[in-house]
Structures are given as C-alpha cells and as structure tokens.
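Students often ask why inverse folding is considered easier than folding. One informal answer: many sequences map to the same fold, so there is more than one right answer. In these notes we will look at a single instance of the problem. The structure comes first.
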C-alpha cells in the first residue's frame, strides 16, 4: 500500500466531517494508507494577503513535520493543497527565503528539505491510484447519474504553481465519474467560483455567487452536483437554502463530495460515508436502486 501523511486542514475536521469520513473509508479499498501525524497546524492560506511570511512559515512547518517522518503529504482540501504547494515552489527556488523560513523552524527541531511531495485529492485518485484501479473496485455502478462537477478555484489555479488539472478545461473529475457509471455533462458555469471567500466581508455577494450557480445547475436538470472542496461544499450544501433566498429561487440540488459518490459505487454503507451529514436534498437521488 502507498502511504501518505494526511493533512486535514481546519475546515474538514471541525465542520465538514463527511469529507473526512468518506476519504478514510474509500482509501483502504484503493490500497492507500493514511497516516495521522501530530503537530499539524493551519496552512494559513486565508491570511496570505495579510502576512505572506507567516503563511510560508506555517506551511513549511507542516511540510517539515511530514518530511521528518519521510512521508509525502495528501492534502484533500484544495486551499491547503495550494498553500503547501506554493510554499514548496518558493522554498525550492529561493535559497534566501528557504534559509529565513528554516530559521523559524529550528526551535522545534524541524527543517524544511523539499523532499515531500504534496498531492491533492485529484492527484491521488486520478493520477496515482488510477482509473483502472478505481474501475476494479466498482460494485454498484451509478447508471446514467447526470452530474455537474465543481472544481472550485484553488484546485486548478494558478497554473504556474502546478495545479491538479487544466485551468480552462479540467476533466479528471469527469474521468473518475464516468468510471463509476455516472454521466458528467458540461455546463457553461462549470468554472464559476462558489463565493466562499467573500463571506467574511460581503456575505450577500458570496451567497449570490452560490445561488446563481446552483440555480443554473438546477435549470439544466442535473441529478447531482459533485465537489471536492470543504469550503465550496459548505456553500453549496449547508448554505443552499440561504443562497436560494438570496437569488429568489427555491433550490433543491443534491450536493455530494466526489469521495462520497465513489464510496457508494464501491458498495460502502451510506452511514460510513457521512451521507446523513449532507444538508442538501440528497434523498432525491436513487443510487443503486435505493434512496439515499
């Protein structure tokens, strides 16, 4: 089994439990061992515009903890993955910054060396596990489930950092969904932002972005809306009713994590995948002949 230090970030273990539950359930089936390490802290990406040095130092510290155990890092949250990846890019190419950041880590006996790779949920599922391996594990194909994919901003941008898929035409989620029997289809709003990072200062604008996208997905009669980001999922799932009120629409769009849908196709019981924690109307779906 391939072994990775799992970096949970802040949102997943404190609020978006279903994402973590579904990840931990499906990975052993795909021959992936997740290792929990002590000492991880926030990646600090949300404060990057306030203090870039602190962002680099905190991300480097997390990477150094994994490097000390000689493990690569699996970061399921796209925002965390972006922070860690950007930190690695900077410290691997800027010797002066590398020395400065490492000077902050010495008090804890840590050192950033650049040996750890940072992999996202799409890197792991699509590129490392692979489509063929996933196909082998499918027990209950999701026959013709019409799905709309949401990549979010951080998983595919900015390209110069090295992201998980093409910024203009990402297809890895679609490839995975086709493998488990679903029917992903294109829609013009596919790359639109969820609005989550506007919440602190412009909550109504954030909900408007959320509501507008879900409204278009609903109008195009998709069966389900699939994402991989806990920040985005919070907008589309738990805030769906409020987003609908903001755009004057009654929204009833089932929203699931990609990992939850994978688990369903593998025959894993729904309660182990955290489906009871989804707040969008997933009961509308008929998966494997049974209502969720």
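Output (designed amino acids):
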């Amino acid at each position: 089994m391939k072994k990775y230090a799992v970096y949970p970030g802040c949102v997943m273990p404190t609020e978006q439990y279903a994402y973590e539950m579904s990840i931990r359930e499906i990975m052993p089936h795909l021959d992936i061992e997740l290792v929990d390490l002590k000492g991880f802290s926030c990646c600090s990406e949300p404060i990057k515009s306030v203090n870039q040095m602190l962002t680099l130092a905190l991300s480097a510290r997390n990477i150094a903890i994994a490097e000390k155990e000689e493990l690569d890092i699996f970061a399921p949250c796209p925002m965390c993955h972006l922070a860690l990846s950007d930190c690695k890019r900077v410290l691997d190419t800027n010797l002066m910054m590398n020395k400065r950041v490492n000077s902050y880590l010495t008090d804890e006996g840590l050192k950033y060396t650049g040996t750890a790779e940072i992999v996202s949920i799409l890197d792991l599922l699509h590129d490392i596990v692979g489509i063929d391996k996933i196909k082998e594990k499918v027990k209950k194909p999701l026959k013709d489930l019409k799905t709309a994919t949401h990549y979010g901003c951080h998983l595919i941008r900015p390209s110069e950092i090295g992201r998980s898929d093409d910024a203009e035409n990402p297809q890895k989620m679609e490839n995975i969904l086709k493998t488990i029997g679903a029917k992903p289809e294109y829609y013009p709003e596919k790359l639109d932002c969820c609005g989550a990072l506007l919440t602190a200062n412009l909550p109504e604008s954030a909900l408007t972005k959320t509501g507008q996208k879900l409204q278009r997905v609903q109008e195009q009669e998709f069966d389900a809306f699939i994402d991989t980001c806990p920040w985005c999922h919070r907008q589309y799932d738990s805030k769906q009713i409020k987003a609908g009120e903001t755009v004057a629409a009654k929204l009833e769009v089932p929203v699931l994590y990609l990992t939850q849908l994978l688990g369903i196709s593998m025959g894993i019981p729904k309660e182990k995948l955290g489906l009871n924690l989804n707040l969008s109307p997933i009961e509308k779906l008929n998966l494997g002949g049974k209502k969720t």
